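Table S2 (text version). Query chain:
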Amino acid sequence: MFKSSIRTSVLRGAIDALLAVVDEARFNLKPDGISVRAVDAANVAMVNLELSNSAFDTYSVDKEITIGLDLTKFLDLLKMGNPDSECEMVLQDSSRLKIKMGSLNYHISLLEPSTIKREPKVPEIELPGEVILKGADFRQGIKAAEAIGDYLVIGIETKPQEVFFMEAEGDVDKVRLELSKDDLFSISVVGEEYVRSMFSIEYLKEMGRVIAGADEVKLRIGNDFPIDISFRLGEGHVRYLLAPRIEAD
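Corresponding structure-token output:
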């Protein structure tokens, strides 16, 4: 049996973070909280969500259970409730979830977990560059690039001084966001003069929408390697991995 109550806005934020990558996912309900790890259909982006039991006002689960959820339908349902209201959830059986928000009572059908793409293994990647910046600054760089091109280069330069940059180039236009050490919480590169990789703006703009509200976002960057993006979401933790588009010589 699974039973919990949580502020509706917290749950909405968690589901929104997942929707930046996938529209359905397996939820692992464990005694210490809820975890979700999923990869998009093209195997370009991965999301990992950890929502601790401390994020809930009440939380109990007899044993570890895995359920499947249609994220779009679930978020639409949560939007019907007051963000500040309590969302109570009770797993009635392996196929139905009861949800109560104020005077609203829902009974929703769950997806069979075996029909959802299997959880990916998290790759072990050595990335020499690391930056911690404001979520709003990261979002600004993505927004600025959207009007210029389809791809965004993200990197760190160490000479003449350490700077973090995000730049996009179109047929005739170009934009570059540049942040120095004074604009960042931290910046470092190990064993390289610079690191840079190119990524699809289509993926980044969905992630950026979620990241915008984060106080701090950690980026780990390499040369033509996936970018590792992690940040806190209230009592939860979100991590994105996004594969690069390899630049032509």
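Notes on Table S2: The chain has two domains: 2-115, 129-242. The chain is about 15% helix and 45% strand.
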